[in-house]
């Protein structure tokens, strides 16, 4: 597809389980971002990948969160031992490069509900 | 560090009335500023951006925003609201930080349009 694709669109899990969220960015986009959107909290930055550089993990809220990007394309966000406060919409975005003026293209998000 | 403040989590207007969504930023270096819109169950999409050229920026769907350095503001306006404008609007700032330009988003403003 032409846009950023995320899967699953909805995920319901039990507290303590691990989840994986997938993001397929726009072809050719070297920058990839993960944000978390909670009700009334706006977008919270999680992690940023740029090309083959080491990712910027400064936004990850705890060591239960991790992400990888294979081959500079698809990214997977993993949440281990999920907690109820992890419930949110997880948004992935990509952009053409690292430039300041570049537009971010967002996927529709993965809605995670932890029971 | 940069930050964005959006005044008002909800703004309600009548169809045909002026839309004004407020955004103030904090940055120690010249910023690039963005407005994104999120329609229900969709990802964010770019409305317009300021990149240090003209201070009055025109975007899609009749929206525009003016960069005012003295007021550190980048308010979004539209002369006449349409029912289809009902959505969540996010202001974002992007500055250089450690060699990257990770956007910081505000908490969002929900625009409600009454018939």
What can you tell me about this protein's structure?
The complex is a heterodimer of chains A (115) and B (115). Helix content of chain A is 0%, strand content 48%. Chain A has 115 residues and is an all-beta fold. In chain A, the strands form two sheets. In chain A, strands 2, 4, 5, 8, 9 and 10 form a six-stranded mixed beta sheet that branches. Chain A has a four-stranded antiparallel beta sheet with strand order 1-3-7-6, with no helix packed on it. In chain A, strand 6 and strand 7 form a beta hairpin. Chain A is globular and about 40 Å long. In chain B, strands 2, 5, 6, 10, 11 and 12 form a six-stranded mixed beta sheet that branches. Chain B is 0% helix and 50% strand. With 115 residues, chain B is an all-beta fold. Chain B has no helices and twelve strands. The chains are: A mainly beta (115), B mainly beta (115). At the A-B interface, strand 5 and strand 9 of A face strand 5, strand 6 and strand 11 of B.
Number of strands of chain A: 10
Q: Pairing-aware structural class of the strands and helices of chain A? A: mainly beta
What value does the Rg of chain A take, in angstroms? 13 Å
Residue share in helix of chain A: under 10%
Helical fraction of chain B: under 10%
> Termini of chain B, distance in Å?
41 Å
- Spans where pLDDT lies below 50 across 5 or more residues of chain A: none
Query: Oligomerization state of this entry?
Result: heterodimer
The Cα radius of gyration of chain B reads 14 Å
| Major sheet size, sense and barrel closure of chain B | 6 strands, mixed
What is the overall shape of chain B? globular
Estimate the global geometry of chain A from the Cα principal axes: globular
């Amino acid at each position: 597809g032409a846009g950023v694709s995320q899967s699953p669109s909805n995920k319901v899990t039990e507290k303590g389980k691990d989840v994986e969220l997938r993001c397929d960015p726009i072809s050719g986009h070297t920058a990839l971002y993960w944000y978390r959107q909670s009700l009334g909290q706006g977008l919270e930055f999680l992690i940023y990948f740029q090309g083959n550089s080491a990712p910027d993990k400064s936004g990850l809220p705890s060591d239960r969160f991790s992400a990888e990007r294979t081959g500079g394309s698809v990214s997977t966000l993993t949440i281990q031992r999920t907690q109820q406060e992890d419930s949110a919409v997880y948004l992935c975005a990509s952009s053409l490069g690292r430039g300041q003026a570049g537009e971010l293209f967002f996927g529709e998000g993965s809605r995670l509900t932890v029971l | 560090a940069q930050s964005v403040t959006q005044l008002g989590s909800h703004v309600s207007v009548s169809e045909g009335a002026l839309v004004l969504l407020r955004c103030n930023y904090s940055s120690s270096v010249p910023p690039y500023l963005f407005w994104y819109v999120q329609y229900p169950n969709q990802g964010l999409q770019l409305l317009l951006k300021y990149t240090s050229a003209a201070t009055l920026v025109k975007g899609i769907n009749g929206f525009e925003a003016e960069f005012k350095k003295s007021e550190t503001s980048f308010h979004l306006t539209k002369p006449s609201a349409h029912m289809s404008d009902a959505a969540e609007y996010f202001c974002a700032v992007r500055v250089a930080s450690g060699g990257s330009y990770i956007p910081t988003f505000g908490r969002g403003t929900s625009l409600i349009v009454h018939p």
